[in-house]
Design a protein that fits this description.
about 240 residues; Rossmann fold; five-stranded parallel beta sheet; five-stranded antiparallel beta sheet; 8 helices
Length: about 240
């Protein structure tokens, strides 16, 4: 049995991210996509939806308002670009709350919560809990980043390094650079730890792009990255593996 999912979001790129994430998990099935709360109301009332990924900030009717008006709401995961709505979302019995841009690893954790919630009343779903560990280990080959007013998809293998620049992070690739609105620590949490390492308070490096290394610097094909004093031991330990 598969969990039938409905995506509700007025942004095409946001729907595309969730669509890609859903397709990576065998026991999820995309039942439909809606651009607004009115379309979603019709789809939900038809029945057959197990899990709804519901955007909060939509025109005409918000996701919060939609969740309040439907008495028998399917299992719900809120999505939004703004974290201040989290408390109200959980008060509506949402199993999780995803802040955009939504990484696959964070998406998996939310789905795992939904599976646990659904399996309480459906024995046929309990076997899915056994599959959660393998899903959690799924390889994330790309991620979406907010660059100016759009979401840009970058292949993780193409990211050479990232540099903190105030409230932004500059992501370096061989072809072009991208200025992303998030902190270096937030970016570090999103990137696979086995491939990307923090080598300085202001830098993250992809170890697969390291061409040479001294005691003070890491060299790639396009830039030289400093190694912070407090990071030297951990960098050398990881590189030596």
């Amino acid at each position: 049995m598969k969990i039938r999912c409905l995506i509700v979001d007025d942004e095409p790129l946001a729907r595309a991210v969730l669509r890609d994430h859903i397709r990576k998990i065998d026991f999820l099935e995309l039942a439909g996509e809606c651009r607004n709360a009115l379309e979603a109301t019709s789809e939900i009332l038809k029945g057959g939806i197990d899990l709804v990924f519901l955007d909060i900030n939509m025109p005409v009717m918000s996701g919060i308002e939609l969740a309040k008006q439907i008495k028998e709401m399917p299992t719900l995961i809120f999505t939004t670009a703004y974290s201040e709505h989290a408390l109200e979302g959980f008060e509506l019995d949402a199993v999780d709350y995803l802040v955009k841009p939504i990484t696959f690893n964070r998406f998996v954790r939310a789905v795992n919560k939904a599976v646990k919630w659904l399996s309480r009343n459906d024995n046929s779903l309990k076997e899915m809990e056994e599959a959660k560990e393998s899903v959690a280990q799924a390889d994330e080959s790309f991620a979406y980043f907010k660059v100016e007013n759009k979401m840009v998809r970058l292949m993780l293998a193409d990211i050479i390094a990232a540099e903190s620049q105030g409230h932004y992070v500059k992501i370096y690739t061989a072809k072009e650079n991208h200025l992303v609105y998030q902190s270096i620590s937030q970016l570090e949490e999103r990137l696979p730890s086995g491939i990307f390492i923090r080598c300085h308070r202001s830098f993250i490096i992809n170890i697969r792009h390291i061409r040479a290394m001294t005691y003070h610097h890491i060299e790639t094909d396009i830039l030289k990255v400093p190694i912070g004093r407090s990071y030297k031991a951990s960098v050398q330990h990881i590189i030596a593996k």
